[in-house]
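Onboarding guide, step 5: your first structure request.
Type a short instruction followed by the sequence, for example:

Predict the 3D structure of this protein.
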Amino acid sequence: MTTEDRTVTEERHASWAELFFDLVVVAGVGTLAHVVHEDVGGRGLLLYAALFLTFWLSWTTFMLYGNASGAQTRTVRLLAGMFGLAVMAAATPGVAEEVLHHGADGAEGAGITMTNAFAVAYVVTRVIGAGSWRRGAVVVDWPLAQQITGAIPFLVSVWVDEPWKFVLWGLGIAIDLFLLVVVSGDDMMEGAQQRIDAMSRRDPERMSRFDGLVPVRFEAEHLAERLGLFVIIVLGEGVIQSVRAASGAVWDGALLGTGLAAFLLLAGMWGLSVVHGHAGVPHLRPGTVPQRLALALHAGTTASLAAAAAAIGAAVGHGGEPLDEPQRWLLCGAVAVWFTLGLVASLCSRGLHVVQPFFWLVTGVAVPLVIAARGADLRSSAVLWYLVAVVGAHLLVERRRQRSAAG
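The system replies with structure tokens like these:
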């Protein structure tokens, strides 16, 4: 067998268990899109960002566990995480109702509110995920996989009333982000070794059977595939929203044009994220940034894509009429954020080149924001077609670059 044959044989893809686990993303993204669709104001966007990040962090913990464990992945662990994420998704509409409209979330009679159900599910999911790793394993590239410190405020919030309940949620998220930024792989190994030394002093006989610490490294291609699949699921929510809006609208020429633009926009964003990007991040190149940064960029790009998907469905529903200002800002703002993160990925991957970042900044960021600010009289179809032109221009540049590299 040649080296090339062995490489092909040993190439690893997502298992059936991992693909089944990813089905929970469909439910999660759908309910999260409902949150941002209901309230596009600052409070709604802040809640959306918080809920999306908690969902994404929980999913990432189990995704990385499957990546590192390979054939030794325990399906029961994935199913437990899947159930916890499903509870979080089911509770999300009730959380939004409580936070945004101060209404009863409909579960008091059962003894638990939706906000508490979400918090408990999040805590349990994080605990199960953190305990999934084999003894001695240290996840140096993503410390949150083994940390539950950020989940503690969520647990405390169960016994706290508003508004402090959601202040604690924000604190928990801030703790996770702080740990993600300041805790390095060396810090993880050093802290783990200190704990091992302390345990050895207390119980030397038991620790004599310990094989030592093992730093966990992720399989890059498998990781990129899983992150790309997440992006495809998010874009699928855009398709669902568009189809749902079209099914309840008057079928005429305006709807046809709007629906076609929505389809092309979603396809173009898929092309930049998956075909011409890496790990679901546009303009990112494999092996050029640390995996921790790639994961952080993935969180931001998927959050903006999910928000754009909700707004695209609203645009299809409006057909030939002008898009409501909040929805117009949501759509164009989400696309601008998505392009901004793609620009960051490009600068990290390729370095600073004056012309190309300027082109991306003007077309991908400035143009959508100008449309959002000045497009009050534009039909929803026109807004979508402008964005299609922007994404299409970036696709042409990427295809030209690809051909030049091949030549």
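Each response can be followed by summary notes, for example: Residues 1-9, 105-110 have pLDDT under 50 and may be disordered.
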